[in-house]
Amino acid sequence: MHIEYEEFESIEDFLMYMASAAPPMKNTLPINSYKGYVMSFIPLSPATGETYLMLYAKGSLEPGIYEFDIASKSFKKVEAVERADKVYFISLTPIRNTIADIAIENL
Fold it and tell me: Which pLDDT belongs to residue 25?
């Protein structure tokens, strides 16, 4: 498995990138908070699963739903997905993530 990396200065910058890369009409995206990093993996070779792009920022988020406002570049934890003009991130904290473990080891 091969992993490419894209590091962001802050969680807000990471969320801004993720919000801009979201497929049209999809305003809810999963992200991981794992071992001191907030991250997402994008398969660059979906057919074989051999190459991934790890997008990440140092930091952590509690599990839950986060509302992200692109205009102010800010986020807050919320109870539900309510507004179509916002992008929402579902932060998950896995017990084990083998792809992330390999990626973090190679940083």
Answer: 53
DSSP H or E segment with residue 11: helix 11-21
Phi, psi (5° rounding) for residue 20? -75, -25
Structure confidence by residue, pLDDT tens digits, 15-68: 999 988 766 656 788 899 999 999 999 888 877 778 989 999 999 999 999 999
Amino acid 24: pLDDT:
60
Q: Which residues have CB under 8 Å from 57's CB, separation 6+? A: 7, 8, 9, 10, 11, 13, 14, 37, 38, 39
How many domains, in total, are found in the chain?
Answer: 1
Work out the number of other CB atoms within 10 angstroms of the CB of residue 25: 6
Domain limits for position 99? 2-105
Half-sphere exposure of 33 (CA within 13 A, CB side): 15
β-partners of residue 95 are: none
State the Cα–Cα distance between residues 105 and 107, nearest whole angstrom: 6
